[in-house]
Amino acid sequence: MIAIIGAGIAGLTMAIALKRANIPFVVYESTKEIKPVGAGIAIANNAMQVYRHLGVSDLLSEKGTRISTVMLSDMDLNVLTKSDLAPFEDKYQLANIAIHRSDLHKVLVDEVGMKHILLNKRLAHLEKNSDAQYTLSFTDGSTTTHEYVIGADGIHSQVRSGLFGHYPLRDARQVCWRGVLDYDLSDDYNNIALEGWGRGERFGFVKLEGRQVYWYFLVNEHKYLKHKELTALIQDCNPLVRDMIVQTADDDIYLNKIYDLPLIKEWSKGRVCLIGDAAHATTPNLGQGACQAIEDVYIISELLEKYSIEESFQRFTSIRRKKVSQIVRDSWRMGQVAQLSNPLITSVRNLAFRLAPSFLKDKQISMMFELQKV
User: Fold this and answer.
1) How many CB atoms lie within 10 A of CB 170?
2) Does this model's pTM top 0.85?
3) Model confidence band, residue 36 (pLDDT cutoffs 50, 70, 90)
4) Dihedral angle at the C-alpha atoms of 14, 16, 21, 24, nearest 10 degrees?
5) What DSSP designation does 31 have?
6) CB 99 within 8 A of CB 114
7) How far is CA 354 from the centre of its chain?
């Protein structure tokens, strides 16, 4: 039986794939209840292709809102550039969607089944036994053994620490607020994911189901340390954006620092494998963090159709590494460009994005959306 550590997007998606393949598994989740942290999330076309493969894309599309255009603006909503996703919708017969994380998690949990998920099981230690099994010790004092382990326990992965030792995270020195509220956003923004860039700050928003709107706001860390109060930091935003943020209830706003994980040489050792943020956490600038975790699941599920579990784990890194490396690198660079603060440099940056040919943007989107082959 395979132990999956973590009932986030990566772990639950992996569980669905194993269930479809009739491979026994159990999911260990550290929290006392499955309560997704965060607000909204975009599920890009590559991840939706995986969910179609697993039979849940229609359920997610019903709960989400189609994103047909990605738009970049300045802080006053003047458009710098936009990307039309319709050609990719036609190519793959699927759309990008924006969805509340709680709706996404509910679909995934329902597909897995709570009988396969054990709550309040925070991993403390992972140890290999002489008989090729692994002993999992949890903070509640309990232990269990498994022949195979999949670490889907996020950027601060205990499985990764137990497998490879400590890997320091890379600090982007940026702080991000995220929120969801009911808001009468103009129909002009239907099916559009918009991000606005300023000087050391940026925002984004997209409609979810019904009247819900998901927004985020980032600042360079030194600005946060100087002011800290969100209302003091959003003064350069368009009044529409300020209004959305101010009207959001405090309990519906989440604050996080931004990190990624310098790439690890291998994501598996023996019969243990890392997926998602545990293996290759990326900054959120391309909207591909969760999507790459979902794509990890696709590759492992395809490998399992041809090879043993152990050999599938061993082959996994070599297939995924090139694409993931590029996304982690490009996302980091995009975050640094987006958060530039020098007035002259930001003016040149904005002009460059206005003049950039569309084929360059489409080339990057094509790379992200194309699933890899086994």
Assistant:
1) 15
2) yes
3) low
4) 80
5) S
6) no
7) 27
3-state secondary structure string across 291-320? HHHHHHHHHHHHHHCCCCHHHHHHHHHHHH
One-letter amino acid for residue 48 of the chain: M
Query: In angstroms, what CA-CA distances link 21 with 91, 238, 307?
Result: 27, 50, 13
Q: Please name the residue that has the structure tokens 């076309």.
A: 45
Q: Give the β-pairing of 117-118 and 25-28.
A: parallel
The tokens describing 362, both together, are 């489409």
Q: What is the DSSP letter of 42?
A: E
* Phi, then psi, of 73 in degrees rounded to 5: -135, 175
Instruction: Return the DSSP state at 253.
Output: E
Q: Does residue 280 carry a pLDDT above 90?
A: yes
In whole numbers, what is the pLDDT of the chain averaged over residues?
95
- 344-367 pLDDT tens trace: 999 999 999 999 887 778 888 999
Contact 201, 226 (CB under 8 A): no
**How many CA atoms, within 13 angstroms, populate the side-chain half-sphere of residue 255?**
10
Half-sphere exposure of 73 (CA within 13 A, CB side): 20
Span 119-131, pLDDT tens digits: 999 999 999 987 7
Mean pLDDT of 141-163: 96
- 3-class SS letters over 196-210: EECCCEEEEEEECCC
Residue type at position 357: P
Nearest Cα residue to 284 out of 216, 356, 189: 216
